[in-house]
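My current task is to audit a protein record that another person submitted. I need someone to confirm that the C-alpha cell line plausibly describes how this chain folds. Take the sequence as given and treat only the C-alpha cells as open to question. This is what I was given:
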Amino acid sequence: MNSDRVFPLNGNILLVDDTPNNLRLLSDLLSHQGYKVRSVTNGQTALKACQAKPPDLILLDINMPQMNGYEVCEKLKANEQTREIPVIFLSALDEAIDKVKAFTVGGIDYISKPFQVEEVLVRVKNQLALREAQVKVLELNAELENRVKERTSQLERTNQELNEEILERKRIQSQLLDMALHDPLTGLPNRAVFMERLENALSRTKQEADYQFAVLFLDCDRFKVVNDSLGHLVGDELLIAFAKRVQKALSRRLEPCLNIVNTLTRLGGDEFAIIVEQINDACTATVVADRILQELMHPFQLSRHEVFMSASIGIALGNSNYEQPEYLLRDADTAMYHAKTCGKARYHVFDPAMHQEAIQLLQLETDLRKAINQQEFQVYYQPIVALNTGKLAGFEALVRWNHPHRGFISPLDFIPIAEETGLITQIDTWVMREACQQLKIWQQQKLTQEPLTISVNLSGRQFSQSNLIEQIDEIFKKTQLSPQSLKLEITESVLINNSQSAMAIIQELKKRQIQLSLDDFGTGYSSLSYLHCFPINTLKIDKSFVNRMESSQENIGLVPAIMRMAHTMGISVIAEGIETSGQLAQLRALNCDFGQGYLFSKPVESKLASELIEADPQW
C-alpha cells in the first residue's frame, strides 16, 4: 500500500441513494473534488459492491425501498470484510431519535437533507482523514513488528528505532482519540462523549438517592438565515462564538456552596447539549438556562459582521426511571421544540405529556398520509349569501376529515400538520377538483337559475407550486366547469412572501377569468399597497371584526373604512362569521356585498347543499 496516498483527495467513495438526482448531484460534487465515486440505487447492490471492492467511505441514504439504510449498515457491520468501512447517513429525517438510531447501528456521521455542499465536503474530508489515520496506525504496527523480527541482531539500533516508532504511534493515536471525541469546529466534546457521560449520570441516579442532574438541549434560533444570507464561513464563526458564549455563562457559579459540574457538547449543526450535574432541584437547571439566555442577548461581534443569535432551550431532569440515555436526550429535544413553538429565545421544562403529544402528532401525521390514499376526506360547503337580495350566491368548499376510528377531526388539528409536511398541496388539489366537479353537477341538474360560484382555499405551499396553473387547467378540462365559476381564496401572507412569483400566477389566473379573494383581511400584514399591485376581486373581512360589531358603535372599528376602500377600488366584500340578525342588519346598512356564517348555515355535505340550492332560501 502506498503510504503517501491522501484519502481526502483520492478516496474511493460509494454513494447509496434511491433518488437519481441525489446520486448525480453528489457524484458530480465529489468527483470534481478528485474522489473516485461509485453510485448504486439500493441496499442489495451496495452490499455486493462492498464485497467486490470495499470503498474507503460510504454515503448511505436511510429511506430506501426493500432495505433501508439502517439495515444496510447493520449488515456491513456484521461482515468482517466490511465492518471497518465508515458510513455517513444521509436523510431528510431530522428528529433526535432518528439520529440516535443512525449512530446506534454503526454510522459515524449524519447529514440532514437537503444537505449543504460545504457540509458534505467537510464531513467527507474529515472522515476520510480519520480513516487514513486509522490505516496508518495499522501500517505502523505491522512495520514495527517486521522490523523487530528482521533486526534482532542489531538490537541497539532497533531499540532506538522502536522507541521512535512508539512515540509516533502514540502521537497518531492521541490525534485519533482527539478527533474521535471532539467536535472539529468548536473543540467541544462530541456526541459520543456526551452519550457516555449521560449514561454514567443515569447510572449514578440508580446508585445514589440524593444525586440529581439535568440535560439542557440548545438549538440556535434562525441560524439558517445567517448561513443563507452571510455564508457558511460566517455561520461557522458564529457557532464558535456561540459555544464560547455558552461556556462563559456556564463558568459563572450559581451559589457559593453549590459546585455544579457541566458538560457542554456540540451534537451537530446548530444543536448543543449540556449535562448539569450535582444540582439541588429543577430550579437550578432553569437558573442555568436563564444565565445562558441572558448571555446570548448581547450581539456577536464577528470578523466582518455584527449578529444577534438567541437559542431555544429544552430541559429534561434525569431520574432512575430512564432506561436509556437516548430517551432523556429525546425528551430534552421535545421540550426545546415546545420552547420554539412558544416564541423562541426561552426555555421549557419537559413534561411527560409532551412525549404523549409528540407521539399523537406523529400518529396523526401517519394517519393523514393514509387518509389521502384511502380517500377519507370529504368536502363540505358553506353558503355565501348576496346581502342585497338575501339569495344564495355560491359556496365555500371546506375540507373535513372523517377518521375511521376517531371520527371527524377538526381542520385546526390536521391542517397545520398538512402544511408542515407538504401534504397540504395534495389536499388542496383534491378539494379543488371535488368542488369544481360538484358545482358542475349542480349546474347540470339546473337546481337554480342563479349563477353560483365555488370558493376554494389555496395554501401558500400550493400557491408556490410551479405547476399550479397546469393543475387548474387539468381540473377544468376534466370537470368541464367554466373558469368564471371558480374563486380562489388566498391569505395576505401568500402575496407578501411570494410577491414576484405571485404576480405572474395571478396574471395567468386573470387570463382564465378566475376570481381571486383575499381571505382573513385585516388579521395579517394588512398592507394596502398590494391591493393596488394585485388585481384582487374580493376582500373577506375576518369574523373577529364581525363578532365585535354588536357590542358598541365604537367596536364597528375598521369595517366601514375597509368597505369604502374596497368599493372605491371596485373590489367586493364578504363578511365572515355572521351569527346574529343584528350583525346582518349592520352589515347590510354598510352595503356589504356578501356574507357567510352560522346565521345562514353551517358547512354541510353535498347532499344537504343540493337541498339548500333547490329550496331557494331568502335570508
